Amino acid sequence: MKQKETTGILCMILASTLFATGGLVLKFVPWNPLAINGIRSLFGAIVIAIFMVTTRHRLILNKTTALGSLAYLGMTTLFVASNQLAGAANAIVLQFTCPIWIILISWAFLGKRPSSLEWTAVLAVLGGICCFFLDSLTPGSILGNCMAVLSGICYALMFMQNTLANGDAISSVLMGQILGFMLMGGFVFGETSFSPSVWLAVIWLGAFQVGMAYIFFSMGTRLIRPLQAALLTGVEPVLNPVLVAAVFHEWLSCLALTGAAIVIISVVLYTMAGAGLFPVRMRRIRMQQTKP
């Protein structure tokens, strides 16, 4: 394995691991979701800005990056709220439905009709989502699940704008963090708990779980293939609920666990199938090659 590829894989694993700490660390912050996202955005913006200045990465301001910043802001705010209402596992797994929303949004607004493979993935993931909603009969859990799904849609919009010629992921993240602090930072004055542990948790969420994670993410996606990057991000929806369960004993029910398995497996298999990596397909190719 080349050193460049090894470095890229390591960066993606570090990014996914830092992302996954969000569900656990959020449990230590008894603030309003808006206050949490506003203050952590401040620390995240500082880290990202230092990285961009150090690497001389120019801030790109245009309609595409502006849309990306709004999508980023919606994604992070909805995720924090969902984490508090529905639980860390529900929040991260439902946000992981992002690729499915990319398929549906592309069909609705760009006229890209889904293939039979994509329809299969969409229906499978929607089935997994139904398991979460059937398992959540309380109003708070249902609202939290809805916010997690909306977070996944915002995540999809963020990924889509970065595929355009004028898109720039790191610029969108920085602008989204600055906007988040400006709009929501003031909500912290309504809070009463400011212990050292709370501040340490908020600083971690901003500087590491968001700031450093997106730096590693941007580096990793430049060094390895998109498929590798997509599969390595699967570390997050698995590690996130495991960390929370280990510390707070917040376990998924059998029905929700079934839904989580359906969502994660469907997304991973869809990604692999789209790249033609299934052994069955490879065997067919070899058989065709050996025919006289």
Q: What report would you give on this structure?
A:
The structure is a single chain. The two termini are 36 Å apart. By secondary structure, the chain is an all-alpha fold. It contains 14 helices and no strands. The C terminus is likely disordered.
Question: If you compute it from the alpha carbons, what radius of gyration comes out, rounded to the nearest whole angstrom?
Answer: 20 Å
Which sequence of SSEs, written as H and E, runs from N to C? Answer: HHHHHHHHHHHHHH
**Strand portion:** under 5%
* Average pLDDT rating: 84
Task: Tally the beta strands.
Answer: 0
The biggest sheet, with number of strands, parallel, antiparallel or mixed sense and barrel status, is: none
Shape: globular
CA-CA gap between termini: 36 Å
Low-confidence stretches: 280-292
- Helix amount: over 70%
| SSE-based structural type | mainly alpha
Question: Helical element count?
Answer: 14
